[in-house]
Amino acid sequence: MRRTPSPNTISIYSSLAVAFFSTAIFLCISLIFRLHTPAKYYLIIVSIILIVTFFLFRFILVRFIYNKIKIIYKTIGKPLKFENEIRTGSSNLIKTVERDVAEWAINKNKRIRELQRMEQYRKEFVGNVSHELKTPIFNAQGYIESVLESDLDDPEFIKKYLEKANSNIERLETIVSDLLEISKFESGRIQLEKEAFDVVKLIKKVFFQYQHITEQQHTKLTVHGDDNTYFVFADKNRITQVLENLISNSIKYGKEYGNTNIYFHDLDEQYLIEISDDGPGISAEHLPRLFERFYRADKSRNRKINGTGLGLSIVKNIIEAHDQSINVRSELGKGTTFSFTLQKHIE
Ligand SMILES: Nc1ncnc2c1ncn2[C@@H]1O[C@H](COP(=O)(O)OP(=O)(O)OP(=O)(O)O)[C@@H](O)[C@H]1O
Ligand SMILES: [Mg+2]
User: Fold this and answer.
1) Which pTM does this prediction carry?
2) Which of 55, 54, 24, 16 minimizes the C-alpha distance to 42?
3) Per-residue model confidence as pLDDT tens digits over 228-244
4) Closest listed ligand to the CA of 258
């Protein structure tokens, strides 16, 4: 890369050029008018011209550059910290300015991309909320209208339709309360009530909640290392929510005669807990967005598995509220593993 000359260098070259031309002009004048000026006078005049023009050029350049740089720094909103460098005309100055402006441009670009991503996310979010709310509202409305349009003389029919309407309203309620919960987490309005408890016991209890499905689907739970006790210090109700979603996902997205495996890894101050299934897996392109609200790997709206895609978003919020982390890895055809950390309970 070509080096940017400093104001000092430019001034030296410019004053040398001026001095050279003035000497040439003096020499011409002396020759034309046959002046016999001694050489030392030429030398004195040229030196004076050299010094005066050097300082003059330097002064003009520095003032010009200083004014320009001041405007640049005002535009990029950074404090101008090197006024002395400007006054001495140092060459680092231009490099520093170039670096600061490049840094500013990179940050601005990043911010623009982030805003574009957020805008896209916001649009998708509004679309998703509308869609998820619309479906149960329309369904409930349909069932109620059918009842109203009937002769109202068949109690069996009325009961069945009102029950269907009710279950849609319950779904609506779940979505709205899930969304409220996420927004409370995101604005830091959730207070955790931490206590010590054995996480193995809790995992087995949660799996048992889904017995009706696991028996039908023949899903098997294996907790590896369950002879040990794994006491963690966390909000038990919130961790129950985490386990409910991760275990229910491993069952509902898992295969028939599938396995849900739980592994524990002892880290220094935490336990790393892995919930793993041998289901169809999730393709790599979905993994980075899996924890977003309403994100579902299986996009088809009329798929048979019910779910809003809010579960993992809540899970991530809960784990992060505990200052812990959660990750997912998956391979198509092999299965999916969610791993998260929890703080150990140390007596
Ligand atoms: N173990 C898994 N195996 C395969 N896909 C999974 C697994 N867990 C989650 N997914 C995919 O991730 C998506 C998001 O999961 P998430 O738990 O957030 O939502 P959901 O289960 O669809 O609905 P909700 O939990 O709100 O009832 C799911 O729709 C599914 O496509
Ligand atoms: Mg889920």
Assistant:
1) 0.72
2) 24
3) 889 999 999 999 999 99
4) 1
